[in-house]
């Protein structure tokens, strides 16, 4: 009889794609399966998720990878889930969905945030390290109370995306410190839920009871339920840990663990974070999320302004109501033939909006008959890099203690040599490419050996110098490009507001 090899499963639910990956005991990727995340853009500002379809998607992927692993002689020892933070996944007492979930890219509740007094926002930031914004669970719970009071009354648990998936695996409602702290719901000094975010939006402190008990990211919630085991073919009782927010998981997967480590993740969301001590006063950033190491947290500037823009361009030429498009790799090859600045074409990367600019939309400026698809792509990836720079500048000015090591660059920007060079040139600092394909799944799976008491060495990443990209001769051009980008961005609010009032634009 052959004894199967041990492996660990990481689930990563992004706004665009859902992935399940398996890793061996030293962190090498063994297999990965993926599917599109069932997110629906109802309007420009309303982004829903069919919770049942999402759960079915994850279970199907687990069944698929379980079959692959069994055929290759591997047996999973546990499962960890990471997913996009914020948004709201409301369920009743039997863990049944209360209508669709609301994704973290949603901005329908912006008016609620705008009504919060500035001192109230500062109070939340001092207490939790996070500021109020439109897709926070507290803000969306208030929207639910106003717009759908029956759904609000029926909601027993307010879950994150990751907690919804974990509940489907185990039949248990849970929460972890990384997600809950990024909600602005956990005091940095108390490490307990605080009612401040609820109070700021006019909800009673009693609504804290709707949020599940807090667990460490590496704490076992429960074993895989019998029903889920039957659907996936995985063993009943397989340990499932609480998991963590995808920003934290991807940072772990990229090797960002020590104080001062900076990570840039080029995914659907732009994630720009630095590991800092978990204490007050917190750096003045948009989000702070506890790391699995209780002594540290991730101070972040984030927005849905990154690789989603390139994905939009890749599919923009497809006939209406059809899927598919040009491969991103093909677009990036074309962009490499275009000079810096895309021959005068500028792009503001807001195809799915921005919490900081509520009316923002994706915008090309300077387009002419001379521009071709390669110019469009170059402008898009330059615009994405420039807005990462805007956010990184805020992190650097926030009071965070940032080390002098190269920032880790992960996601689509790292896998493309031309895009990685643009990042180094735009930022004016070296970046180290992280080429592991499934960083979020790897990061959360890396918590499993310790959680299960397995005696294996900590997983490491490749930090070789040949992966380090330094600013090159185009740095001067991108310094000037940044000035134009910033001036245009500062003047666009009135234009975007006017477009927002266009009678053909859905609310």
Automatic annotation (TrEMBL):
Keywords recorded for this protein, A-Z: Kinase, Transferase
All copies of domain Carbohydrate kinase FGGY N-terminal, residue ranges: 8-253
Pfam families referenced in this protein's UniProt entry, alphabetically: FGGY_C (PF02782), FGGY_N (PF00370)
GO molecular function: kinase activity; phosphotransferase activity, alcohol group as acceptor
InterPro entries: ATPase_NBD, Carb_kinase_FGGY, Carb_kinase_FGGY_CS, FGGY_C, FGGY_Carb_Kinase, FGGY_N
GO terms for biological process, alphabetical: carbohydrate metabolic process
Top-rank taxon, per record: Bacteria
Carbohydrate kinase FGGY C-terminal domain sequence ranges: 263-447
Keyword Disulfide bond listed: no
Family: Belongs to the FGGY kinase family.
Protein name per UniProt: L-xylulokinase
Organism of this sequence: Micromonospora inyonensis
Organism placement in taxonomy: Bacteria, Bacillati, Actinomycetota, Actinomycetes, Micromonosporales
